[in-house]
Amino acid sequence: MAYKLYNYNPSGGAAIPVAALFGLATVIHIVQMFRTRSWYMIPFTIGGVFEAIGYLCRYINSTETPDWQTTPYIGQSLLILLAPALFAASIYMILGRLIVALNASSNSIIRPSWLTKIFVIGDVLSCLMQCGGGGYLASAKTKDSVDMGEHMILGGLFVQIFFFGLFIIVSVVFHRRMLASPMNYVGGSYIPWARCMKVLYAVSCLIMIRSIYRVVEYAQGSGGFLQSKEAFVYVFDAALMLACCFAFVILHPSKMLGEQGKQYQKTEDLEMLANHYEAERNY
């Protein structure tokens, strides 16, 4: 018996506005990325493209009910499944750049030069496992093939949660050490690092909740409750990932790591020199 692509009739009315919102957020991210030269946001931007195309594919399938075509299904399944891993890759790089900008490597349990590499490798491994599982499901003709595909996706999601959980631990330890010894670094005090950490915590929690939902979904299997209702996809995946996208639209990392802070520090230094010169002259 062939794998049933959907256990419900996909809603075109839900897919179109969600795709449009992801598209809007992605366009804004592209503009911000080029304007601020924040190339570490490239994976995040690609993730936004994946989300937008993924929900467009769901719309295409909604027009084909009940004879859904495999190609749009594979597109929506893989792109929506993989996008959060790309979001996470940029989040890893943001933390690494923050640590370097603060010259606070001693407060991190993983060296900044290794931090991004370790977590991106985990992301790649997770993506490969999820892609392989998605391919199995798309071509599944027996119950064993369906189970194999779901187990591969589940394994990839567990890898993603493991590395993302480790990243959150690294972030919390770094934050606590910074609070305990705020003068134990020589970075610029103009960098609002505490606010940056709060933003990273917020988007990290959103991605973690979404990943846990996906784990439970695939653990239940194709006949499970979560895969029987389309609403869960929009509540526990689309809405959470949209919140991530617009969080970085409003609080773009360049505002905390970019040239604005550097310019502020240069101005502050010039003022200090001028005041010192004036004091010397008066003396």
Describe how the helices and strands are arranged:
Elements: H1 12-36, H2 42-62, H3 70-101, H4 112-138, H5 143-180, H6 193-220, H7 231-250, H8 254-257, H9 259-282
Give an overview of the whole structure.
The protein is mostly helical and 283 residues long. It has a domain at 88-282. It is 77% helix and 0% strand. It contains 9 helices and no strands. The model is unreliable at 259-281 (pLDDT under 50). Keywords: Membrane, Transmembrane, Transmembrane helix.
Residue share in β-strands: under 5%
What is the CA-based Rg, rounded?
22 Å
Structural class: mainly alpha
Label the overall shape.
Answer: globular
**Overall mean pLDDT:** 85
The overall strand count is 0
Kindly summarize this structure in a few lines.
The chain is an all-alpha fold and 283 residues long.
Defining traits:
disordered C terminus, globular, mainly alpha, 283 residues
